[in-house]
Amino acid sequence: MAFIQLYRKKLQENYTFLNAIFESRNIEWGIVSKLLCGNKIYLKEIIDLGTHEILDSRVSNLRKIKAIAPNVQTVYIKPPAKRSIESIVKYADVSFNTEIYTIQMLSKEAQKQNKIHKIIIMIEMGDLREGVMGEELIEFYGKIIQLPNIEISGIGTNLNCLSGVMPTQDKLIQLSLYKQLIEAKFNIQIPWVSGGTSVAIPLILKNARPMAVNHFRVGEALFFGKDLFTNQTIEGMHDDVFKLFTEIIEITEKPNIPTGELGENVAGNTFSMQDSKDLSTTSLRAIIDIGLLDMQPQYLEPEDPEISIIDASSDMLVIDISKSKTAYKIGDLISFKIKYMGALYLLNSNYIDKTIA
What is the pTM of this model? Predict the structure, then answer.
């Protein structure tokens, strides 16, 4: 059976690296755990790192975190759905919000549960996902500031997740100006200005972050050490906290061109014959025990550089091992480095074992 493995020491070293960066700049930060898809084994690993705050987009995952570590601050990082209000107030200490009606419901539910529920007001800054429009922010703030059992802990923005808009210094300065505007208008102090996710870390490393931006939400950089501006690994970090292992279940020399009338395969693709010379060629193909039900091939990179991925069906992945210097046999493991979205697919699959090394 295929399995994904988390390397504890590499995770710890990535955490220590990031924590030193944030602490030296007086920045608060939390770990975004949504990649882990609520896996209790892995959730415990990030709790054991010593983090005081975990953020997730699934309330069921926050419930598991509270069961393991009740004192960890939990943050729900998307606008709450109406039918989830009760559980969000119960399991999330903080939630990200963009709708007055939703915040009013949170207020009523927090009163029922005799709790103070903290909120972050998300502001639209160009990526066109969630966020209050800037010109409506003051009026919006005025309508929620006196709601009972609601504590406005800060403002924030989300960039790069939908349209690919990058968190430049100018964007974060603009976010800082919104803080100043609100504080001056309402004579209050805003504790948090949440400047974004892993994609903003290069700005921090260059000391290009406005000082008012004092909170970040980090997931991808922790698990993959990635600089999302350059797509390179941040120097001093590991890009292989996770690794996928799959087992070979067939090895056979086969033609490179299918025979017979061609139609769409299970993924809706049709085979295209690129080069007529391939008609007479063959390759040594191996089938491994993972398929589209668990992953997408474009997010996997074989650790053996001489292996190439051919294609996948629902439960099997076909690879070309013709050029490999390793004499593979049935039962051998093929390992892969994984990209962020690849790990998300794998960790969400009930058919992939999750282990720790």
Answer: 0.93
